[in-house]
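Late entry, evening session. Most of the bench is empty. Finally got around to the prediction I had been postponing all week. Sequence below, unchanged from the version circulated by S.P.
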Amino acid sequence: MTADTPLKVGAKSNPNAVAGALAAALRERESAELQAVGAGAINQAIKAVAIARSYLRGSEIDVICTPSFVTVAIGENERTGISLLVERRKPEVKDPHVES
């Protein structure tokens, strides 16, 4: 995967595997994109983002995710899907003296 190539997520994608690829990408650069078409694929993509956050915790990296619509070519057809732009950010430091 190059910096400009989005990670394609399908309904049968393993969210742990997608999370590993996403975490690896975010250790190397500031952002990565996931693309998913259909409810099952979008579900797997969202789970992957949540899992990637836990993978990145030890690297002191947190993420923010911005969804948008995208048109994806599948064969000779075009379908509307969801693009998740996942960007790095520093984890929030919680004051141990302040209750949530």
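Two things to note before I forget:
The chain has a mean pLDDT of 92.
The CA atoms of residues 62 and 91 lie 5 Å apart.
Will write this up properly tomorrow.
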